Amino acid sequence: MPLPVSSEAADEECRVRCEIPDVIRSDLVQIGGIPGLKTRLPSPERIGEISATHHALSDPVRVSILHLLAIQPLCVCVIRECIGISGSKLSYHLNILKENGLITADQQGNWIIYRITAKGGIFAEEPVRM
Questions:
Q1: What would the pLDDT profile of 23-47 be if each residue is shown by its tens digit?
Q2: Which of 14, 36, 46, 84 is the S-S candidate for 31 at Cβ 3.0 to 4.6 Å?
């Protein structure tokens, strides 16, 4: 909910700081001017989370890993074979995905099995079924 601001004060703030087209000004005044608009932004913490997720998804290798795990849980050796990168590079990418809650890892005996999370599934396309 926007902070209560008189339309005169919001209109004056818009005039003082910058030239705003009338079509924008009228809507802006209705939500409490610039202060009202600012109250509608997510918290700095939430913006940080969103930014970190987008960073995690900014690499084609990580997006490929998500898509593989959307098909089924996999161990490192299968992911490495599909992606074609070294184990150390794969470990780096898997850690970024884990840190951002896009995948999980479970120890099963000598194996670590990676799975996509519900959050990760949002960003992976539906796998093609043959």
A1: 888 889 899 999 999 999 999 999 9
A2: 36
